[in-house]
Write a structure and sequence with these properties.
The protein is α/β, with parallel strands linked by helices. The protein is built from 4 helices and 10 strands; from the N terminus they run E-E-H-E-H-E-E-E-H-E-E-E-E-H.
Amino acid sequence: MTSKTFKIEHKGDWSGMELDCLFSDELIQKRVLELGQQISHDYVGAEKPPIMIGVLNGSLFFMADLMRAIDIEVEMDFIKIASYHRAESTGTVRLIKDISAQITGRDIIIVEDIIDSGLSMNFLRRRMLGNEPSSLRVATFLYKKEVSKLQEEPDYVGFVIPNRYVIGYGLDLEQQYRQLRAIYAFRDEDLEKIKEK
């Protein structure tokens, strides 16, 4: 059973902070299954399997579960970018690892853990479209719609969430806590304390 709160134990500015559970493991798996069924329906009968491109590191858990929830053939690849430092966006995007798949003329699904400002996704869309895929869709586990500046809305969304900093199910805090099965959110007042330091 998923705990309603999670306490940060590792040393540092975050130590002792208690986070609220937004989505339980059970709810996450139910929603991922629904997304998998939707994707399967949308691509059934396609001439070639769609290529799912996961955005490392955060999308790893979501992409693995999503692929297992899909009942058609799919291919996979990964890309890695960087745009965050601690809990703040840096305002720029750096490419760390590019894809190896040839995507020209193929159906592509970019798989993200979370979209907030939309900066990273806008960058990825431009990069992928430059290779002239047959189609390009976006699947994101979490979506902070109220703060997003996306040029196009994502096609598949797990959950729309408020503008809170979250960890678990692939999302990290200083590279820790990705393994949590549920999604936990920091309380706004705690984040304000961190920003003041």
